[in-house]
């Protein structure tokens, strides 16, 4: 009996030792990807927001002048490694996808479950799909720690950002950052489309991706070079990104609309010309309910850069003619002859000045 007890204790200690070793190794692996946890400060200013396309029904039109204050923004979208670290620090936190036990996955990517509902629908509800199992129960992110985290809702993005004393960007902040200092351009890099600058869909959707950009689905956040002069990555393509700006349909009274938030950036299922899903461009936007989760929705964080804020400049004070400095005054002959008269005239001038 004693031997059985001893063996049981030995097995339990060995098991816990293995768990500790694995957790330490995992921590080292996650820390390796901290190089993608960078922020860049943008000094803000005025810019042209939107696009001059009256046919757009998403609220991109019309073009308007917008202004943002200085802020920091993540250089890359939040990665699986960063979100894993967040989950370790907040072990009790459950994402919306984990709570509801399903999330949307593009049909060709489903892994580990049979999909029967709506055979013609490209997006399906997959049980067990969540941030660490992006295609279903049999998928994993262990070989994709530098990919953008997906299956995160607005609530999840907000919880992550607030944990690190950051916040979700406003739409104007996101678009200012994506434009990279350019005015009224379609893409972060300029007005002309360039191949292999973003992870988009090429070919027939949803089963005929030609992978001309070398990626069938999601790609690492560093797979393409920085997309604009601000040095930011993945502002266009790969995943839609949450913003903290409410979305409203144009022709429906706002008070009857469900709460939705704007997502920006388009994703790997969108196309240059809009033949499949959304037209890829900086101004493009879409509205999602805050609990929505899917294989192509992620986020990045921002925080205010208050030490870069400049106090408003007061308008120049209007100078009255009497306040302007004047040259030497020529004295009247009578003043020079009679000092008392000169003093009297001086007092009269001062009195008239006070009355004005």
Can you offer a commentary on this structure?
The chain has 356 residues and is α+β, with helices and mostly antiparallel strands. The protein contains seven helices and 13 strands. The protein has a four-stranded mixed sheet, covered by helices on one side. A three-stranded antiparallel sheet has the order 1-4-13, with no helix packed on it. Strands 2-3 form a two-stranded antiparallel sheet. A hairpin with a 3-residue loop joins strand 7 and strand 8. Helix 1 crosses helix 2. The model is unreliable at 17-22 (pLDDT under 50).
Strand percentage: 5-15%
Strand order of the largest sheet: 11-10-9-12
Distance between the termini: 110 Å
What's the Cα radius of gyration? 31 Å
Shape: elongated
- Rounded mean pLDDT score: 86
Main beta sheet: strand number and arrangement? 4 strands, mixed
Query: How many extended strands?
Result: 13
Could you write a compact summary of the structure shown?
The chain is built from 7 helices and 13 strands. It has helices spanning 2-32, 80-89, 96-100, 154-163, 171-179, 333-337, 339-355; strands at 39-42, 45-49, 64-68, 71-74, 102-106, 123-127, 203-204, 208-209, 240-246, 261-264, 285-288, 297-298, 302-304. The chain has a 4-stranded mixed β-sheet, covered by helices on one side.
